[in-house]
Amino acid sequence: MKVSDRTYFVLKRLHSLTGVFPIGVFLLEHFYTNSMALQGAAAFDRAAADLARIPYVGAVEAFGIWLPILLHMVLGVFIATTSKPNLERYGYATNWMYTMQRVTGVVLIFYIIFHTFQTRFDPAYLQSPSPYDFMRKQLSSPAMFWFMVVGILSACWHFGNGLFGFAIHWGFVTSRKAQLRVARLGLAFAVVLALVALNSLLAFTGRGLYPDWITKPHGQDHAVVMDGGTR
User: Fold this and answer.
1) What is d(CA 179, CA 118) in angstroms, rounded to the nearest whole number?
2) End-to-end alpha-carbon separation of the chain, Å?
């Protein structure tokens, strides 16, 4: 399908915008909630229950998460099938990043569909008394564990590198030097995000790293202080 240059420009802006708001914000929240698994089953189950108790959560998910993701997917497929890397104009690294953005986008289509069904509609999950225990059993399968690793790494790369595209499409960086700086920051952010997300994944297998030096001394639950003592 052919569209005018102006329409194509608007679609690319809309595609990059939805990748950051709300999808990117949701991704950060999702990784934050998963990190609660480092504090044990009770902490993660409590965090999952808090999310489930959000008022109108079904509508929030449908219009705040699923619809933007669907729109981002459709626009991404359209852009990927109507453009191609410019090997003459851009350098090897830029074209490599462009290609990886498309490859991870395709991987994420299948990953998100599966992960959404797995944690939102799968009867085994809905009937499970503990979301933490459900994920622990799921990840005991090597195939499932590595599938999740591929999905997480794809999401981190796609978001980190997508910030670079967002900055360019919305005109926040224009000079070549500024674009290079943003590209490096985006990749560095993707690496940090991947380390955090993979550590959360390992937490479900009992191998997550949670050293004392990254916790605060007052992070533990305290007894209620009463006049003349505690109870």
Assistant:
1) 38
2) 70
Tens-digit pLDDT profile for residues 29-79: 999 999 999 999 999 999 999 999 999 999 999 999 999 999 999 999 998
Residues forming beta bridges with residue 229, ordered by sequence position = 226
On whether the pTM is more than 0.85, the answer is yes
Residue 34 has what pLDDT? 97
Backbone angles phi, psi at 230, to 5 degrees: -125, 165
Mapping DSSP to helix (H, G, I), strand (E, B) and coil, where does residue 139 land?
coil
3-state SS, residue 172 = coil
CA distance 97 to 91: 10
The predicted pLDDT at position 132 comes to 97
Say whether 19 sits in a helix, a strand or coil: helix
Residue 231 to residue 212: CA distance in whole angstroms: 27
Angle, nearest 10°, between helix axes 176-203 and 23-35?
40
Tokens 């090897």 locate to 92
pLDDT digits (tens, 9 = 90+) for 91-126: 678 888 888 999 999 999 999 999 999 999 999 999
Structure tokens at 83: 């453009």
User: Both tokens of residue 99?
Assistant: 């290609």
* CB proximity list for 103: less than 8 A, separation 6 or greater: none
